[in-house]
Amino acid sequence: MNLGKIVFTVITGLTLLALAQRANAELGEHGSYSGQIGFVTVSSDVMNLSEDHIFIVGKYSGTSTNSSGSGFLHNVAWMCSGTTEILKEESRGIGYCTVTDQDGDKISGKWTCTDGSCDQYFNTGGTGKYQGLRSHNKFDLVFIGMTGHFVSVVRDGEYAISE
Length: 163
What we know:
By secondary structure, the chain is of the alpha+beta class. It has a single domain (30-161), classed as Allene oxide cyclase-like (AOC barrel-like), CATH 2.40.480.10. Helix content is 15%, strand content 62%. Strands 1-2-3-4-5-6-7-8 form an eight-stranded antiparallel β-barrel. A hairpin with a 5-residue loop joins strand 4 and strand 5.
């Protein structure tokens, strides 16, 4: 290998390492967050089991912003799926989401809702700057009529990245 290729390889490697460290420094080892996710229903299968019993399987996509205007979950793409059961005005839901940021790094997590009390945990996988990430937040859903669009208002979020 000639000297030019070696220098180019070393400079490229150091640049990528510096960018990764800068991204981790911007995210920090731990922090808090809140924000909003705008979702649209990609597909849903609604089963009316009886007059007061409905079962829904759905897939949803959206984008989010962090209330601070930067940081964790700011300007990221979401892809979620899950099930919701409504029985006599009581509802329970469970599902999973994968979030992809502008660098292509991803995190995955689980969400649950019981009668409007919703939690989200990111702890099922992470790539790049999100390796070792654990987070939890609460969220509220605001549906926009019967359009298939809704907003998830994220609150009380905390995250930590362990090595």
